[in-house]
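Tutorial, part two.
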Amino acid sequence: MDQPRPNPFWSFLVGVGKFINFANHFIFNVVMLLLLFLALLAISAGLAARSGDGLHTLQDKTALVLDLKGTLVEQYTSAPLERAIAQASGDDQNRELQLRDLTAAIEAARTDSRIQRIVLLTDGFDVSGFAALGELGAALREFRKSGKQLVAFGTAMDQKQYFLAAQADEVYLDPDGGVMIEGLGRYRLYYREALQDKLGVDVHLFRVGEYKSAAEPFVLDAASKESREADLFWMNDLWQRYVDDITAARKLAPGAFAAMVTDMPNRLDAAKGDLARLALDAKLVDGLKTSHDLETLLAERGAVGDDNDSFRQIDLDGYLAQVHHHGLSLDGSKPQIAVVVAQGEIADGRQPQGTVGGQSTAELIREAREDDQVKALVLRVDSPGGSVFPSEQIRREVALTKEAGKPVVVSMGNLAASGGYWISMNADRIVADPSTITGSIGIFGLFANVPRALGKIGVHADGVGTTPWAGAFDPTIALVPDAGRMIQSVIDHGYEQFIGKVAAARGSTPDAIDKIARGRVWSGAQAKERGLVDELGGLAAAQADAARLARLGTGDYEVHYIEKPLGTFDQWIMNLSRNSRMAALVRELGPFQSALLDLSGERIGHELGWLQAPKGGAPIRALAHCFCGL
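Running the prediction step on this input gives:
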């Protein structure tokens, strides 16, 4: 619940943050443009000619090297200029990898006679959930079915990196590295004592559903019994699935992997602290090799590279450029299955990529509906939800698209909970990964007032109003008792709307939905058992469903992502970043470090932002948000 006007303290902090953010982007972009200008001068003068030129002919016995440094996303969240410079300068911390790009490259390599094998480098890989990880793993398993070899290498693997490595024919680990498998956990910060006892900020939580725990940290000092129960239920399901997948991939004895993880402290003691030896003894890897050892091995198996110092190889961007250059991309002659990505928190208005805007995402769905070439829509959802109204805007566009005769299939990614489920529920079919985090059908509101906090510094609010409600939602005065009753009434109404819409969309009743709702979170597999999703699978399964519903035969359609188009300058920047001369020069100049202050407490700032008032709008606003990511 958000108050109608911000108090001065929050406004000051937000203003400082906005100024720092603006200054950072301004300085970053100016310096990056300067680097690009220097790069263009160098290219035109031939200063970097030794690094090669543009698009080479792909030779036989080439290994596709998938260096996974970066964060796996459904859709880029950074601007083209920032991505181009990060890519060219080797700034792996800010690098993003689109899931669709990786799966497209793996699929193309499967049937490309010039690609002999895939080499998977797991260092620096990060992903927010297990659904996208599962889809990437499935693509790698399909590649192996072609008979081509898949080799994985890493220096230090966490459990998500290791999941991908385990799909390989051979897994190699640096002798000084290790594999660290922890299991699943979810821990949050709780603010009640700091806000209420220390600072004098009174936070009022209004909700429906004992499992709707998203805002509990503002009113409790530890997780509630219901929150612990629900979290452990879906996390155990995801963990068991992970254990089963690793056991099958590595052909381990039943129970061996789980026992190793549970007993890891003792086993590490027995290995005298050598994580690499422990991984080898547990058959998690096939051998211990340095990167140089691996390069020598692959050169012997394939061909020596042009530099005579490694094996013949091509990276992800270079290979995708080859694929598109040879006309394997869309030609626009076939009917299309449109894909709209809804990734990130759901907010009002138009939002940039990486977040979901009620207006901007609705416009993309409308664009698909009004395009005669588009025969069906797949809505790819990876969202914890957010505000109710923009969620409802998107849901309405989904319903209108169905009414227009175009099938809509939702593909749930890592997270499609609360508002993420709201925008999904009206699809013809909902496809979720077994490890998708979904459900959390519930509503909550927050209201914070600060008269006690102001009193600590000798500031007091007083005044008069023409009605009993004038100023009732002013955060500088104590909450009027009946105002709290009004807020709860709005939240109750919002919840009734939520379960009523789900019931209508899923062919059920509000009472039946209420029993599996009340804010409770489920895994994708658990949600299917309870009728909240129709099918378990990934994006490819959702696209196949959409084609079937649109009566399109296999191979008779193209998949087209509907996104905000890149401008001419942005497109030029992205093409330039793939030029090897540009990349070589920027690497020589050294990666540019952003001028943004490394502000500690970013996590705290983001969470406390939910207590801040919106600009304008109604004083009472319901939220359908789930803080349920891993």
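Residues 1-5, 43-54, 580-600 have pLDDT under 50 and may be disordered. In part three we will examine how such features are distributed along the chain.
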